[in-house]
Amino acid sequence: MIDFTFPPEVEEVRLKVREFMDTRVRPAWEAIDQDNRDEVVKTIVELRKEAHDDWGLWLPHMPPEWGGMGLGPTAMAAVSAEASKVGIGPFVINAQAPDEGNQHTLLHWGTDEQKEKYLKPLCNGTARSCFAMTEPEVAGSDPTLIKTFAYQDGDEWVINGHKWFISGARGAKFAMLVARTEEDPDIPQAANSCFIVDLPSEGWNVVRDVHTMSGGHNHCEILIEDLRVPAENMLGGRGQGHLLGQYRLGPARLAHCMRWIGQAEIALDMMVERAMERYSHGSILAEKQGIQWLISDSAVELYQCKLMVLHAAYQIEHGMDFTAVVSMAKHFVANSLWRIIDRAIQVHGALGYSTDTPLAGMLQQARWARFADGADEIHQMRIAQRTIAAFNDDGTTKKATGNLPL
User: Name one Pfam family in it (predicted).
Assistant: First the structure.
């Protein structure tokens, strides 16, 4: 039997997160000036304390020994989808990017000393971090091309390079920095290593917050000039930067999908509500076939998104090879998010295009989903390659389409 329900304990947590978001987080978020950074920070800090002390909703993805709730990927799909229905929801429960991915990475790759110094404050919520890999001069989808270079000088590494779109860099207490350490590796994927950089540090220069179509959101350009990092701050082994990055990005891609599902569901709910309320040309919008098609397409896509994310989470949780399904989910959910929000705007008309509803801001934010953590075209290329390889190996593409028992 295939059971598509959550266990009672997971359902209990999901509903608790929903209640917390509905009764405490959303009202607090909507009551402040969201463009006022001081107000935003103050609100998040207060709600974090409430989440930790009063609601027991803190660090859901981390083990109890690190102060977390010990939820697996499938349960996290439920929690993240609920939390992400409010913009600051993931921050309030300390499950936001990039810190969530960095916490997992430190837990898996860090030494005991590194975990004590860097993971512990991250889990306690007393520090933030960033992950510095993307560079303006080379394709972000191909980390083997990274030009930031590190050479060893005694007990230190000296690093020079250029990074950008480093989310959360301003205010971060440390960075995970990926740099090239090998001149002529046996394979291109063994050229990079990862370093933990204490911030601020001499040689780590924040040039600017790169503004996007949705404004500035602490996605920084960094100039690295003779930055010195202690040898003991290498995270993982020498030449394992690519491996570490892929370990981090796989589940992180799915975590993004989980959050996007929450946003897509909000958009669909708003679409239906508007269609039920708006009267035009003799009937409400919900009775018009053109509007029904927009609703139908969105409902079908959201259903597909949820199934793909749950199946990918299941594979991660059971130690299966999840690379292919996460890649497909990331590509599909990112595109569905854009389409569903766009349809919701269409049903709202000029109101949806205005900032009187959250839809315009949601669409601006959604656009980055199709290239962050792997552009659409890269995922499509890999999906095609795996599908062809499956057919060549087995005479069927079954393995490349989820390897489901159908």
Answer: Acyl-CoA_dh_1
Contact criterion met (CB below 8 Å) for 177 and 159: yes
Which pLDDT does position 3 carry in this prediction?
Answer: 82
| Strand pairing class (149-153; 156-167) | antiparallel
Query: Which amino acid appears at position 171 of this protein?
Result: G
Ranges of beta strands (E only) in 101-212 are 129-132, 149-153, 156-167, 174-180, 192-198, 204-209
Q: Do 217 and 257 fall into the same domain?
A: no
pLDDT of residue 385: 97
Give dist(CA 64, CA 59) in Å, integer: 9
Burial class (CB in 10 A: 0-12, 13-18, 19+), 210: middle
5 CA to centre of own chain: 24
Q: How far apart are CA 224 and CA 187, in angstroms?
A: 26
Q: What angle do CA 263, 330, 194 make, to 5 degrees?
A: 110
- Eight-class DSSP state of 61: T
Domain boundary among 214, 239, 264: 239
**Residue 236 backbone class (left: φ over 0; alpha: ψ -120 to 50; beta: rest):** left
Cα 44 versus chain centre, distance: 19
Q: Roughly how many angstroms between the first and final C-alpha of the chain, as a whole number?
A: 13
Asked if residues 283 and 396 have their Cβ atoms less than 8 Å apart, the reply is no
Residue 108 confidence (pLDDT): 94
- Nearest Cα residue to 171 out of 41, 364, 19: 41
Residue 106 counted as domain residue: no
Say what the pTM is: 0.91
Q: Which amino acid is at 184?
A: D
Q: Give the residues of the chain that fall short of pLDDT 50.
A: none
pLDDT of 1 = 64
Which residue do the tokens 């962050």 mark?
Answer: 372
Outline where DSSP puts E strands in 45-191.
129-132, 149-153, 156-167, 174-180
Is there a domain that residue 120 lies in? no
Rounded to the nearest 5°, which phi and psi values hold at 200?
A: -75, 155
- Could you say which DSSP state residue 118 is in? I
State which amino acid sits at residue 361.
G
pLDDT of residue 206: 98
